[in-house]
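Re: weekly structure request thread

Next one in the queue (331 aa):
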Amino acid sequence: MPLGLGRRKKAPPLVENEEAEPIRGSLGGVEVGSGGSVAALQPGLPPPPASLRPRLVFHTQLAHGSPTGRIEGFTNVKELYSKIAEAFKIPPVEVMFCTLNTHKVDMDKLLGGQIGLEDFIFAHTKGQRKEVEVFKSEEALGLTITDNGAGYAFIKRIKEGSVIDRIQVINVGDMIESINGQSLIGCRHYEVAKMLKDLPKGRTFTLKLTEPRKAFDMISQRAAGGKHNGSSQLGTGRGTLRLRAKGPATVEEQLSAFEERAIEKVDDLLESYMGIRDTELAATMVELGKDKRNPDEFAEALDERLGDFAFPDEFVFDVWGAIGDAKVGRY
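Done, posted below.
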C-alpha cells in the first residue's frame, strides 16, 4: 500500500502538556502528601480519582537568583508558569522557559512536557531586548527553533559557522519576538522556522529578540546547549510527571532504553527536516508509532493526532524507520 494514501488533516495537541495534582512526605525534590499511594507510581494502572491522587510539590528558583519557592496544583505548562509567577510575585508573561536542575541556559535540560519527581525547576525570565539586522547570505541561517508551550518561540541551537553564528549578539535562549515587525508571540516553533526559511536570500531582515535574564556567572556565556550531545533525558528521579494537552497529568516510570533512543533519533529528524527540536513532539510520535504494523498505519495515526504539522511522506517514512531501528537495537 502506498504510504499516505487517504491521509487527512486534524488539529493536533501541540505540546504534550497537562495536569498535576498537588503533596507532604519526601520524594527527593518532591513532597508527597498523606493522600498519596504507591499505586500512583505503578505503570499500566488507571489514574486514581482526583480526591485520592498525591499532591505534587516542586521546588523552584528564578534562574538569575532568588529564594526557593514551592509550586503545586498546575495542570499544564501555562499553569506551571503562572504558579511560578505567583510564587515570586512577577507577571506570568515574564517567564520565558524553564530548565531542570541547572540555572544555566542549557537546552539539553529544557523543561518540556515531563518533569522528574526529584527535579528542581529553574525559571528563566525576560532580560534585555535587542533588535538585530541580519543579511541572509545563505539559504540556511543555522538556527534550530523550539518553543515553551505557552506562546514563546526561542533559539535552541546555533550551527557552528552559520550566518547566525557570525552574529555574536544572537544567543541560544533568545526569544524571537518578531521578524520584520511581524509579531511571533503565540506562534509555534515550526511556524517560526518556516518564516525564517521562507525569507529571501540576498536580503536583510530584522529580528527583535529578548534574552533571558542572566545571573552573574552567566554574563560571558553565549550558548550552553548550542551543540547537541545526544544524551539528554526528559526527566530524572524515581518517576516522571508527564504533562499532557488533554486529560490529567500522570506519574510514570522512567523511559525504556528503546524509548530514549527512538525519541533522540526522531528529534534529530525533526531538526533535519523542519529546523526544530522538540523532545515532547518526538515522544508523542514514538508513542504513536511503536505499536503500528506498517508505515501507513503510522501515517494515519500522525494525521489524526498531529495533522496540523502536515508532515511530508518522506519524513514520516524516515521516522517509521528510526523507530523500527531503535526497537531492534540498531543505534
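Residues 4-43, 222-237 have pLDDT under 50 and may be disordered. The longest strand covers residues 121-135.
Next request, please.
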